[in-house]
């Protein structure tokens, strides 16, 4: 990241609101925010709707701020990868300094206001999550080890715990279980993507598993994590977090996810590259539906157990 380019913006390139908004990685953050929202509503306490709205908004702003800080630090990598080359900094729309200023300001704002609006456990967890994603994952592990996302994935797993803490002021077994679900889900989610954008990471010399250990090893890792994830996700159905509806969703989606992971694993490297990429892309898309559906089911179960008796 130490490259000094992107410090200034070409005069013809005025930044628009949309460019600053893109720094917040809005598409990725939708699912992050949804898991935080579920954590907040699944907690066994009533939260005033306005307070709940503010809590989710501040978590979303904190998540977005961490995205801007990630783009500030990674602008050199983003510039050489096809998938990320059009991001506001490499595209010359926003300068690195602007992204840094936006990321720091929004982070401070989100943490302080979440703390004031709810409690300081939630504010502290949000600050720690931003720190983990930006410093531990982006600045340290991402360029150091192929296990970068296994460890760094913890950052993405905190939001349901933050939501729960915002509602209750506590960390509980249920919120730790939601953390574990997202933590185990992250490696298959990300490695599927890394398989079909492998050349990107090669070019950027980022030590993703696909680059350091190759496609075969990555596929095996995906399969192993998917098996672990399935065991955990189905087991969750028998805890306070789950219930019959959750279990039905988990059984269906884990069967599909296991099938997808197995399909990728058994593929012949010599087979058509287009076919391989199609299967990997399909699995990546399924990973998004997977997490959304599990957290959706957790939300419905919480609603049923709270209001079901009415
Ligand atoms: C360290 C952990 C993670 C890594 C390394 C990772 C990596 C990625 C990457 C590189 C993309 C493509 C982004 C792009 O097109 O700009 C992506 C997409 C996505 N990720 Fe993750 N991810 C992680 C964790 C998560 C978590 C925890 C969530 C949600 C709870 C999530 C939700 C999404 C979504 C929704 C997309 C699709 C965005 C779109 O529609 O383009 N990711 N992820
Ligand atoms: C509340 C809060 C602070 C939430 C943060 C949640 C979080 C850590 C999400 C991770 C999302 C993500 C896109 C990682 C991308 O990895 P990358 O940065 O290596 O991907 P890139 O190559 O697309 O930049």
From TrEMBL:
Where does it localize? Answer: Cell membrane
Q: Which reaction does it catalyse?
A: heme b + (2E,6E)-farnesyl diphosphate + H2O = Fe(II)-heme o + diphosphate
Q: Which UniProt keywords apply?
A: Cell membrane, Heme biosynthesis, Membrane, Transferase, Transmembrane, Transmembrane helix
Q: Does the keyword Repressor apply?
A: no
Among the entry's GO cellular component annotations, what is one?
plasma membrane
Which pathway or pathways does this protein act in?
Porphyrin-containing compound metabolism; heme O biosynthesis; heme O from protoheme: step 1/1
GO biological processes: heme O biosynthetic process
Task: Give the GO molecular function terms.
Answer: protoheme IX farnesyltransferase activity
| Pfam families linked to this entry | UbiA (PF01040)
List its EC numbers: 2.5.1.141
- Give yes or no: UniProt keyword Magnesium: no
- According to the record, the segments passing through the membrane are 28-44, 50-73, 94-114, 120-141, 148-167, 173-197, 218-238, 244-262, 283-304
Topology relative to the membrane: Multi-pass membrane protein
Source domain of life: Bacteria
The protein's role, per its UniProt record: Converts heme B (protoheme IX) to heme O by substitution of the vinyl group on carbon 2 of heme B porphyrin ring with a hydroxyethyl farnesyl side group.
PANTHER family in the record: 4-HYDROXYBENZOATE SOLANESYLTRANSFERASE (PTHR43448:SF7), PROTOHEME IX FARNESYLTRANSFERASE, MITOCHONDRIAL (PTHR43448)
Q: Which HAMAP family match?
A: CyoE_CtaB
Q: What else is known?
A: Carbon 2 of the heme B porphyrin ring is defined according to the Fischer nomenclature.
UniProt subunit comment: Interacts with CtaA.
Entry's family note: Belongs to the UbiA prenyltransferase family. Protoheme IX farnesyltransferase subfamily.
Provide the protein name. Protoheme IX farnesyltransferase
Name its species.
Answer: Sagittula salina
**Lineage of the native species?**
Bacteria, Pseudomonadati, Pseudomonadota, Alphaproteobacteria, Rhodobacterales
Q: Which gene encodes it?
A: ctaB
């Amino acid at each position: 990241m130490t490259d000094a380019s992107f410090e200034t913006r070409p005069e013809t390139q005025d930044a628009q609101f949309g460019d600053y908004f893109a720094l917040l990685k809005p598409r990725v953050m939708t699912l992050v925010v949804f898991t935080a929202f579920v954590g907040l509503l699944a907690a066994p306490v009533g939260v005033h709707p306005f307070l709940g709205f503010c809590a989710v908004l501040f978590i979303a702003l904190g998540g977005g701020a961490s995205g801007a800080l990630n783009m500030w630090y990674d602008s050199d990598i983003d510039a050489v990868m096809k998938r990320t080359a059009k991001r506001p900094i490499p595209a010359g729309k926003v300068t690195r300094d602007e992204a840094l200023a936006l990321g720091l300001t929004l982070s401070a704002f989100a943490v302080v206001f979440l703390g004031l609006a709810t409690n300081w456990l939630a504010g502290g967890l949000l600050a720690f999550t931003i720190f983990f994603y930006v410093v531990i994952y982006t600045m340290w592990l991402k360029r150091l080890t192929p296990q970068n996302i296994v460890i760094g994935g913890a950052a993405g797993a905190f939001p349901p715990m933050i939501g729960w803490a915002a509602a209750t002021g506590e960390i509980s077994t249920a919120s730790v279980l939601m953390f574990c679900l997202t933590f185990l889900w992250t490696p298959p989610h990300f490695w599927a993507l890394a398989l079909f954008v492998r050349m990107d990471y090669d070019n950027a010399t980022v030590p993703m598993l696909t680059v350091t250990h190759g496609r075969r090893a990555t596929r095996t890792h995906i399969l192993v994590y998917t098996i672990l994830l399935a065991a955990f996700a189905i087991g969750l159905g028998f805890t306070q977090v789950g219930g019959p509806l959750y279990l039905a969703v988990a059984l269906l989606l884990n069967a599909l996810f296991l099938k997808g992971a197995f399909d990728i694993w058994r593929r012949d490297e010599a087979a058509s590259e287009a076919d391989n990429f199609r299967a990997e892309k399909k699995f990546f898309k399924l990973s998004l539906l997977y997490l959304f559906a599990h957290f959706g089911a957790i939300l419905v179960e919480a609603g049923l157990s709270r209001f079901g008796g009415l």
